[in-house]
Amino acid sequence: MVNQLVLGAGLIGGALAQRLIARGDHVTLGTRSGTTVPGATALKVDASDAAAVTEAARGAETIFVCTNPPYTDWATDWPPIFDAVIAAARDSGAALVLMGNLYAYGAPAGAMTEDSPLATTEKKGLVRKAGWEKALAAHQRGEIRVTEVRASDYFGPGAAGMSTHLGGGFFEPLLASKTARVVGDPALDHGWSFLPDIATTLIAAADYTGEWGRPWHVPSASLPRTEIVRQINERWGVTGKVARTPQWSLKLLGAVVPIMREVSASSYQFEMPFVIDSAETQQLLGVSATPWDEALETTVNSFRKNAAVK
């Protein structure tokens, strides 16, 4: 039986653990609190503690890093996590698969590919860029095997929170025939990564037998939120609307709500087309996006079910 270490039990880490277990792997799920999912071995571990992560990774095929500190803590929390997991991969011999995002690319001139330059100037993007480059340098020295799976903004059952742009704050008002207030221009194309497709890509990246030391892009849908609203109204018989939150309002909120300050800082992603190209990943890893209609129906029905329970 293959042993796997998954750090983080959120929507991505939890789903990944379940998928690995379903295919017959033994999964140790490491979190600060000892959270687990059925079939996994729960382990209390601080992802920034190199010795503890190394011990947890002994005998593991892969270390999947799916932990994600709060937006407000990225600058302080991510660097020691990167240091710890790189050390753990080096000392345990486990491969390292990082769950990443598109922040390091900055403001794109077109669709972002796996070869697009990491040109960000925004603080959170610089944190992710530095972490990837440190891990890549260790790979190039022959110390570890590393890859990073990059997703766009995720959506799916359970997705919520102030930094989730296609989550409860979007779907719930629409299903009540109200107005969803969003960051940026809702008429612009944007990439949306379905949570199950993220787990699929993480596993495919870990199983890849070709050259490592490179990123992969999660196959994702690209469409404007105005179109998503139209589809929801048509398919579920509601009359929801979408409207942008003014930039001045975001900045005002950011002055008193720290997480909104970080949302505002990365709001440029919604002021231009922000599209992820995954053609190379699809070709080399053999993965594809869940059909949009199916992903949307699964997501909307989960929020409808939650509304019925309340």
From TrEMBL:
Occurrences of domain NAD-dependent epimerase/dehydratase (ranges): 5-206
SUPFAM superfamilies associated with the record: NAD(P)-binding Rossmann-fold domains
Any one GO MF annotation of this record: aldehyde dehydrogenase (NAD+) activity
GO CC annotations on file: cytoplasm
Classification via InterPro entries: Epimerase_deHydtase, NAD(P)-bd_dom_sf, NAD(P)-dependent_oxidoreduct
Protein name: NAD-dependent epimerase/dehydratase family protein
Organism: Arthrobacter terricola
